[in-house]
Amino acid sequence: MNAPSPAVTCDDCAAACCKLEVVCLTETGVPRHFTARDAWGAVVMERLDDGWCAALDRDSLLCRIYEQRPLLCREFEMGGPDCLAEREAAWHNS
Ligand code: SF4
Ligand code: SF4
Known about the structure:
- This protein is 19% helix and 6% strand.
- The chain is α+β, with helices and mostly antiparallel strands.
- The chain has one domain.
- The chain has a two-stranded antiparallel sheet.
- The radius of gyration is 13 Å and the shape is globular.
- It starts with 34 loop residues before the first strand and ends with a helix.
- One iron/sulfur cluster binds at residues 18, 22, 45, 53, 55-56, 63, 65, 69-70, 73.
- Pfam families: CxxCxxCC (PF03692).
């Protein structure tokens, strides 16, 4: 696996990872109104028409439920392979 890139920071990223499907695997206290059910009945973070997670503050691009965010969000590694892939995809779609 590639090492995280030290040059990458969330400060210059339009919260690309907050457009990913996030399954709520454990109970972390996510307010119910930010969640939905996927086609298989699993609890996921709801995403709005702009593609971003319902819990993202659209102005600051910060998570509004940071302390309660799902496990997957906690484990998403800034500068890791998934992060770099999402940044790349977002750049191409902009
Ligand atoms: S994709 Fe990477 S750099 Fe962008 S907000 Fe997510 S963790 Fe931060
Ligand atoms: S819960 Fe927060 S960190 Fe996770 S996708 Fe939504 S806005 Fe992003």
